[in-house]
Amino acid sequence: MTSSIAERVTIIRAQLPPSVRLIAVSKQVSTQLMREAYGAGIRDFGESRIQEAASKQIELQDLPDITWHFIGHLQSNKAKKAVELFSWIHSVDNLHIAERLHTIAQTMGTNLYSCLQVKILPDPQKSGWTVPQLLTDLPFLSQYQSLQIQGLMTITPWGLEEEQILNVFNHTYNLAQEIASQKWANIEMRELSMGMSGDYELAVKAGATMVRLGTILFGNRL
Ligand SMILES: *Cc1c(COP(=O)(O)O)cnc(C)c1O
């Protein structure tokens, strides 16, 4: 890529509807490049490893208005650290971790926001609820008020045709509508975290409110 990060941020920001939150996925990206993105107006950064995020947060302490989003698979033993480091967890992917995050956030008295990660199509590479599992677990999730569930997150399986990708995003949108119509306490369905560098335009078409972009902003990861 010949353009600068600032140029890419500006171009992509201009393509997105103003209501869509642009999360710069900075996993494996240096804090120097993150500073460039910050300079171009980025305030939301997505990380998928706890340890990496912890050291970056120390290095970027002078930029206090960053919102940190966790987007990776979260292991139980890292849940406490995750609540300490992140405002958002997009990748709550099973009932056990949901309950743990709720308990930790409640005990610590911290403000946490989360999305439930759902798998619309089978994908052995990815974690997340299947649709039937998620619908079954809603009564339990509804008790986890400190999790502050805001919506759904999805990742499309690798190698789909454009039409299939759009189908996955539309299906996720419809699922969020269905859950919202059930009016569970403590479960909001105002956010849809979907779309990465290869498919974010389709995600936006289908109603994404948050896109998670790495490669298209920062270039290829090592
Ligand atoms: C890495 C990652 C992204 C960003 O992917 P790009 O294709 O580099 O934009 C988005 N979401 C999740 C969950 C990721 O792990």
Automatic annotation (TrEMBL):
Its cofactor is pyridoxal 5'-phosphate. It holds the Pfam family Ala_racemase_N. Keywords: Pyridoxal phosphate. InterPro entries: Ala_racemase_N, PLP-binding_barrel, PyrdxlP_homeostasis. Residues 4-220 form the Alanine racemase N-terminal domain. CDD domains: PLPDE_III_YBL036c_like. Coiled coil: none annotated. The modification N6-(pyridoxal phosphate)lysine is found at K27. One of its GO terms (molecular function) is pyridoxal phosphate binding. Transmembrane segments: none annotated. NCBIfam families: YggS family pyridoxal phosphate-dependent enzyme. Belongs to the pyridoxal phosphate-binding protein YggS/PROSC family. PANTHER family: PROLINE SYNTHETASE CO-TRANSCRIBED BACTERIAL HOMOLOG PROTEIN, PYRIDOXAL PHOSPHATE HOMEOSTASIS PROTEIN. HAMAP family: PLP_homeostasis (MF_02087). Pyridoxal 5'-phosphate (PLP)-binding protein, which is involved in PLP homeostasis. This is Pyridoxal phosphate homeostasis protein.
